[in-house]
Amino acid sequence: MNDHFRYRPHCPLCRSNRKNVLISRDFSDPSVFTFIDQYYEGRIGRDILAGAEFEVIACPDCGFLWQSHILNDEMMLKLYEEWISPEQSLAKKAKAPVSLYSRYADQIRNIGFFFSGGPHEIQVLDFGMGWGIWCLMAKAFGYKVYGFEISKDRVVYARSNTIEVIDSMKALRERRFDFINADQVFEHLPNPRDTLEELTHTLKPEGILRIAVPNGEGLDQELKMPGWKASKNALHPLEHINCFTVGTLKALAHSAGLNFSDISAASLPQKFSSGALRDPGVDLTSSVDHKASPALDLYFRK
Questions:
Q1: Which pTM was predicted?
Q2: How far apart are CA 245 and CA 296, in angstroms?
Q3: Which domain holds residue 193?
């Protein structure tokens, strides 16, 4: 047993205790560790991971896939504060191509189509804001913008750029928002259903919540292939601990009392903007550079 990890025995979506193990290998096994060592540029020692299992579970009741052994809270902070280089993470946004900012602008402009009031009347939260770049764009459009983040470095940076930051769930519960953006967040959360229920509570009546996550369609079959090796995808070891498909993402939202909106990322380009879809060649996540998997990008209404 590795004390750096904790075990999730129940399905994080439907909370069933039934499970099918799709793969279980020690994190120090070459098929897993080689990727980790290369991806994090040697910042994670094999001894830190040895004795913990990269184990992917499929829920027979709802079909959700998740990693059962995840870093504990202390090590999770270390992952996002140290093992993922803060300098590289910030540089990726600060030195991003115009296409990234263009897509942010499209996403933020489209918020206005959900509501009748002007931007100054609309309260927006970027949940898991990272360095706050999306928030800065939303402020430029005139929205009342807040960012939620627990990384100390990112909070300091965002506040230095005049972003109003909420850094605890307790403080978040006291707020109410018209629109919540959660882009590349839910795949990382130890308790995605509990977190979504909290966010739903902070939505105003008829409020909108956007969730964008990596698309995990077909990964259950990839895990069964001979010669499988870990890679950057919707089941990225250590980080992408929850693996969503369209069906399981909709089921998660429904469990929190949200309704799928027919104005989804797939329909936005036709209705509002030709550039609203994520460019699959541009990574908008918080880690080091890589080519992102095509994302699921859905909108839900309270």
A1: 0.89
A2: 8
A3: 96-214+244-301
